[in-house]
Design goal:
Strand order of the largest sheet of chain A: 2-1-5-4-3-7-6
CATH topology of chain A: OB fold (Dihydrolipoamide Acetyltransferase, E2P)
Number of domains of chain A: 1
Largest sheet of chain B: none
Number of helices of chain B: 4
Order of helices and strands of chain B: HHHH
Order of helices and strands of chain A: HEEEEEHEEEEEH
Oligomer: heterodimer
Helix content of chain A: 10-25%
Distance between the termini of chain B: 35 Å
Strand content of chain B: under 5%
Structural class of chain B: mainly alpha
Shape of chain A: globular
CATH class of chain A: Mainly Beta
Distance between the termini of chain A: 28 Å
Number of strands of chain A: 10
Number of helices of chain A: 3
Radius of gyration of chain B: 18 Å
Structural class of chain A: alpha+beta
């Protein structure tokens, strides 16, 4: 891919233009990364404040009005609500899979059917989460099935 | 629209299932040489349609309604099974497929209902396994 940087005057507004034949997955990733501005998530644990990369989070779960970010082995609390996180997080990476869980699709190892049209996702850290029947259609759409 | 598609899918599976168990049931209880009225074909189609209508108690994939828990899903499945039993035994009796006086025939009907119910359930599970396999392939490509 050719990258062109153009010098502009101090009075001109900075701008990024992407020229592409089609908006493929890689292009969408770049756009999301730009929109996100490489922002890290602010998370809390044991009274301390941490900045974590969204891709490090396996899933977010809302429990008793609190939202937790589950990483490979650590669990942090985040102040945002689940619906706010859906707006903040890169859409191609995260998907709501139940009323209380947002899952990082990149951390799924495999999927197996579960009772009642649901699916069980085995994550790369060996944890298992259930994908509700209501969200299966969106998952299939996202994966292009 | 999705609901209609789901019902149509149930209808075709139940029709095939009933046709199969009816063939077995008639052969066992009425013999190979039995001659049947064409009405039985319409009765089977009608019964399958009524069975498919009952699937309204089952939640649809992607339906943005209240989330259905595992227990709630189990309860709905049991309710659907009870509905199927009532419908098949009720209409089966009306269509004179069997009589309640003959215990073996009632047992045969129950066995037939269970067979079709489990067969349809397994077909849906199998199709879910195929979908899971397709999604896993996509996940692998994703890295």
């Amino acid at each position: 891919m050719k990258v062109t940087i153009v010098d502009i005057g101090p009075e001109e507004e900075e701008e990024i233009i992407l020229r592409c034949r089609s908006l493929d997955d890689d292009m969408v990733k770049i756009i999301n990364r730009l929109k996100q501005g490489g922002a890290k998530l602010t998370a809390y644990k044991d009274g301390g404040m941490f900045f974590i990369e969204p891709e490090e989070v396996f899933y977010f779960e809302s429990v008793d009005q609190k939202v937790f970010a589950y990483c490979k082995s650590e669990v942090y609390q985040v102040k945002s609500k689940l619906y706010e996180l859906l707006d903040e997080l890169p859409g191609w990476m995260f998907l709501r899979i139940s009323k209380s869980v947002i899952l990082n699709l990149n951390q799924i190892k495999s999927l197996t059917p579960a009772f009642g049209g649901r699916y069980e996702a085995l994550l790369k850290n060996s944890e298992k989460v259930i994908i509700s029947r209501q969200y299966v259609g969106e998952l299939k759409e996202r994966l292009g099935v | 629209m999705k609901r209609l598609e789901f019902m149509a899918s149930i209808f075709e599976k139940v029709t095939a299932g009933i046709l199969f168990v009816a063939a077995v049931f008639i052969s066992v209880f009425h013999g190979w040489d039995t001659e049947l009225d064409v009405n039985i074909l319409w009765q089977i189609l009608f019964l399958s349609a009524v069975c498919a209508l009952g699937s309204i108690v089952l939640p649809l994939e992607g339906e943005k309604q209240k989330e259905v828990s595992r227990i709630a899903m189990l309860v709905r499945t049991i309710l659907y099974f009870i509905y199927i039993n009532l419908v098949v035994l009720g209409f089966g009796f009306l269509f004179e497929w069997f009589t309640f006086d003959n215990g073996w025939q009632v047992f045969g009907m129950e066995l037939a209902i269970l067979f079709v119910f489990v067969a349809v359930f397994l077909i849906f599970y199998w199709s879910q396994c195929l979908e899971a396999r397709r999604m896993n392939q996509k996940l692998k490509k994703r890295g």
